[in-house]
Specification:
The structure is a single chain. By secondary structure, this protein is of the alpha/beta class. It has a domain of about 70 residues. The chain is about 35% helix and about 25% strand. It is built from seven helices and ten strands. It has a six-stranded mixed beta sheet with strand order 6-7-8-3-9-10, with helices on both faces. The longest helix has 18 residues. The protein is globular and about 50 Å long. About 35% of the residues are buried. The structure holds adenosine-5'-triphosphate and magnesium ion. Adenosine-5'-triphosphate (ATP) binds next to strand 2 and helix 1.
Amino acid sequence: MVLECRNVSKVYVNRKLGHGVVALNDINLTIAKNEFVCIIGPSGCGKSSLLHMIAGFERPTRGSIRLHNEEISGPSPERGVVFQESSLLPWKSVRENIEFGLAIQGCPRSERQDIAGRYLNIVGLQGFDHARPHELSGGMKQKVAIARTLALDPAILLMDEPFGALDEQTRKRLDFELLELWQQRQKTILFVTHSIEEAILLADRIILLTVRPGRIQLDLELSLPRPRNLFSKEVVEIRQQLLAELMLCCPPGQPV
Ligand SMILES: Nc1ncnc2c1ncn2[C@@H]1O[C@H](COP(=O)(O)OP(=O)(O)OP(=O)(O)O)[C@@H](O)[C@H]1O
Ligand SMILES: [Mg+2]
């Protein structure tokens, strides 16, 4: 499997104002099966737009996005998404939210109970099985959304700052769990983050986008063994390199 973005641009047109925002400009990217790719770049540079197009929720304005040599024309269970603010079904419990997609896929009741239990543990929500979304904190809701997507075991995971709203400890634990899962289950992951450290800990490859309209500023392969130590000489050097590149592509005062 190869995911290929060829000359992808995205323009959002505001019909009222009569002009558009160019979110992404001429993105060329080839992602191999089982690659773990992190995407970083300044706020508003089109990272979410890129993931939405790969998810099949949006179409590129120009260019093409192909998977298995076929143009992506809509969402598919093969591509699981966890977005910045994922929404849950408010009338269903935590457990029912996690089991819902599995039930739709025809997974038998006992099997989906096992799977849901496993992912409830992974995200640390044991004991909240029967809570409704409105009884959870923002971070807990996000954990349910993560568990719901992971439970479906998609071949490709599209994750848009999935742990951004979580506390540092939980984020580190989920980073670790995600790496384990990726190593065991051979997934292709596209992971957007604002954290250089998180990207270095996780990725095979880091794609840095410029300020809007986003273009690829740097495509960096990381061949360091895992688990990675943030204080090792190699990692410190890569951090410095990424910070320097970020300064080049992001004017002062702009959030990264
Ligand atoms: N549905 C939409 N309609 C109109 N404009 C949009 C839409 N989605 C995104 N945009 C615009 O496209 C640009 C890129 O947005 P996008 O959400 O892709 O950025 P981002 O890199 O994910 O930013 P952040 O890091 O803040 O999440 C922004 O200027 C945004 O206003
Ligand atoms: Mg975004």
